[in-house]
Amino acid sequence: MNTAAQAPILEIQDAVHSYGSVLALDHVSLRVEPGEFVSILGESGSGKTTLLRLISGLEQAQSITRLAIGGQSVIGKPPAQRNCTTVFQSYALFPHMSVEENVAYGLKVRGVARAEALRQAREALAVVRLEAKAQRSIGQLSGGEKQRVALARAFVIRPALLLLDEPLAALDEKLRIDMQSELVEIQRSLGMTFIFITHSKEEALTMSDRVVLMRRGRVEQIGPPVALFDSPSSLFAAEFMGFENLLGGRVLDTRDGTALIELANGTRIRSRVGGDQPLQAGVDAGIAVRAEHLRLISAAGTNAPAGVNALPCEPSPAAYRGKYTERWADTPAGRLKLRNWEGKNVDVPSADTVIWEVEDSIAFPA
Amino acid sequence: MNQHPRVHQRWSYWKGWPLLGKGIGALMLLLIYFPLLWLALMSISERPLSGIPLPLSLAHYTALWQDTRWIGPFGASLAMALLIGVLCAVCATYVGRALPLTRRPGRLMLLLVLPLFIPGMSMGAALFILTRTVLGLKLGFWSIAVGHFIWAFPFALLIIMVLTTRFDHRLIEAGADLGASKWQIFRDIELPLLRPGIVGAALFGFLLSFNEMLRTLFLRGTTETMPVWNWIMASSQQSQVPIIFALTTLVLLVTLPLFLGLFWILFVRLERQ
């Protein structure tokens, strides 16, 4: 795909929006390429829904430098004049219309003849495997079916951009997992650009081409799922991505994308630098390590193997968790969590040191 | 702690209470419907004032048909009721949609429905003084209409508000998002969902205006509506009473199905949604 030559399907530059004294969006910029599946991930109140409403036009930004869909500026335009549709969290299906009338509504207001609109609506319903229920009333549908009708209603008019506002949040777990893969399949087969709002790390990581992590109205980190999962660029991103062990120190020097960081107790840790920003020597930095990347060894006073990070520790007994075991290790730098997926026979007798690879240790500005 | 409830209140365990309740209910039904049925019976009785229904006769209906004096007031009442019904439906829909979106809907709502609690004669007298002595206007059909509208509007508004306060505004956003203009959203989404309330408002406006008497007496000038004409006839000439029996029976046959329809729309249709 020749993405470099294509214009972005969505451009947002410097969006600022507040509700009263609460700053919901704090200078947010975003570019989305055609055909991308982009997730906007964040906790409630992070500004992700506000961002979606600015794109759809249900809310007008207080200040924005550029907002363009398919290369055309839509600043100040009402939702009806924007080439994008929304799948609402509440589905917002029209209760007085049948399933097919709901799906055909966007075509109807575009002046498509009734017979043709209904034909296209049934086609869209076939994509979400609901053609058999085209004539049902909305009240007769289950939650998952309503969700799929809302999806069909949004994509049937072939918008440049489909916005999905936590569409899976109201579904039960099994259905949610089924819908995750179904959504991705539908997105691929339609070749449409999806912007997917979610507070679920799993959804964002498993479904998207890129993830936009938001926090307090700002974009914290943007990148492919693997970049966010493996190379968080901030303490918040590391915590959000489930890094259990977080340490703090000062950068001594940097080399080849790694940083040597001195912890408060004087131990030196070499870490890969997360995100795109290089770390400067002398600044405060955070370090994140996943529990499964820590290992116990018995160093017995000898030096740890070269090229790995090591901290002396006092491990607690392992706690059985079914598929894995967990334990704590008290180190001079604080308490660390260890997780072992390899069964129970890996206990190291007289373990007194916790070690981990440089590659598994992520550093970022504190 | 752990005390037994007082057991000596034997009367509250009396088996007769439910029976008494049923008895009172039956009595009420009798009280409501017997006079109406008796009226209908007497309207086809030859000598209604004698108290004995027999012999039966359609003479009063024939007399009513030949007597043309009631047609003017009846027409005035009908036109007035239709006007008030339409006005109520339109205005209450307009206001009722806007009210839940205002900053302090409670206060505005209270002010708007307060005419419900203003005695009819007070409102009538107040409007009379304003129009006649302050503004120096001539009373007639239009002044009755103003009085009726003030009287009926709060009811209409209350009915609409039942629906507009529960209205899911996300549906409006969904419509806008799908490309509908404001008018299309109103026509395709709001209107169908508010229809039971709008129809209810129109019916209430119609019936309240059609039956109104107190305010009309102050504001009518020389115009006669049907309740006024009935009252004048009944109070002045004994001989006209049988015609009135026939006429009021006809009015009953028109208004009762209307009311039944109204309640069916309000309670049966709304529950189904």
Sum up the structure in keywords.
heterodimer, A: about 375 residues, alpha+beta, Rossmann fold, 2 domains, 6-stranded mixed sheet, 5-stranded mixed beta barrel, B: about 270 residues, mainly alpha, about 75% helix
Global mean pLDDT of chain A: 89
From the alpha-carbon coordinates, what is the Rg of chain B to the nearest angstrom?
24 Å
What's the number of structural domains of chain A?
Answer: 2
Count helical runs of chain A: 8
| Tally of strands of chain A | 22
List the helices and strands of chain B in order.
HHHHHHHHHHH
> Under the CATH scheme, which class of the largest domain in chain A?
Alpha Beta
Average pLDDT of chain B works out at 85
Task: State the oligomer.
Answer: heterodimer
Q: Numbering strands along the chain, what is their spatial order in the largest sheet of chain A?
A: 6-7-8-3-9-10
Q: How would the global form of chain A be characterised?
A: elongated
Number of strands of chain B: 0
Terminal CA distance of chain B: 48 Å
Q: Fraction of residues of chain A in helices?
A: 10-25%
The gyration radius over C-alpha positions of chain A equals 25 Å
SS-based class of chain A: alpha+beta
CATH homologous superfamily heading of the largest domain in chain A: P-loop containing nucleotide triphosphate hydrolases
